[in-house]
Amino acid sequence: MATDDMEERIREWLTSEGLEVKVREDPRADFHLLVRYPPTKHGHVFNVLSPKDRNLLVISSVTQVDEGQQNEMSKHSVDDSNGWEEWLHETRLHLTRGHVDWVLHVGHGKDKPGPLQAFNLSMPIWFDGVTQNEVMQTLRKLWLSKLSIIHEIKFSYGPGVGRPGPVDDWEKRGKGPKEESNAPTSASKVETDETGGFGTGFDPSDWV
């Protein structure tokens, strides 16, 4: 299927479900759509895009962790470093078992990992498997995976202070250690962003 036809078909599927769709200019993608899912005021922004030279659709969303929650995580890492390491470990295992691609942005501590500052979840769909059901189910799966982490963070580290905390990887791009991921990097770097209710931010990391 031609890329233009694919984009038109996906836009029709999304709008037929009442989802808000906007076009994002992205020179590294054949098309890049921003979609709010679910279609409520608490919905988050998801990226639906096709990287250039790939017969592939990528759906992703990144979330920035609240500053207050990051502060509580930092206290946890000082008061109980083993407990903090275990919490991070369980988060990694949870995401891996959920069969989603993930990137964790963890603060650059001196002797131990800092707080979880942001996380990016994504899933690829190759063109021969792109259907309305697959696109919508992928959005739903990523959304539920995000909610699972958000609820766990709120349960463990409180409601936060209502503003996003810092993300070392974004502020020191290229100077600090690379973000942790369970997926190999790609030569095609695709922009993603998130403006949902849990946090706002920008993540220029590779999709997978």
Summed up, the helix count is 5
Q: How many whole angstroms does the radius of gyration measure?
A: 17 Å
What amount of the residues lies in strands?
Answer: 25-35%
Question: What is the helix content?
Answer: 25-40%
What structural class do you assign from the helix and strand content?
alpha+beta
First and last CA, distance: 23 Å
Give the averaged pLDDT, no decimals: 83
What strand line-up does the widest sheet have? 1-2-3-4-6-5-7
Tell the overall outline.
elongated
CATH topology (level 3) name: Yope Regulator, Chain: A
Describe this structure in words.
- This protein is α+β, with helices and mostly antiparallel strands.
- The protein has one domain: Yope Regulator, Chain: A, CATH 3.30.1460.10.
- The protein has five helices and nine strands.
- The strands form two sheets. Strands 1-2-3-4-6-5-7 form a seven-stranded antiparallel β-sheet. Strands 8-9 form a two-stranded antiparallel ribbon.
- Helix 2 crosses helix 3.
- The longest helix has 26 residues.
- The chain is elongated.
- The relative contact order is 0.21.
Structural key phrases:
single chain; seven-stranded antiparallel sheet; 208 residues; disordered C terminus; alpha+beta; Yope Regulator, Chain: A; two-stranded antiparallel sheet
Concise structural overview:
With 208 residues, the protein is α+β, with helices and mostly antiparallel strands.
What are the SSEs and their pairings?
Elements: H1 3-16, E1 20-23, E2 29-37, E3 44-51, E4 56-64, H2 67-79, H3 81-97, E5 101-106, E6 116-126, H4 132-157, H5 168-171, E7 180-181, E8 192-194, E9 201-203
Antiparallel strand pairs: 1-2, 2-3, 3-4, 4-6, 5-6, 5-7, 8-9
Helix pairs in contact: 2-3
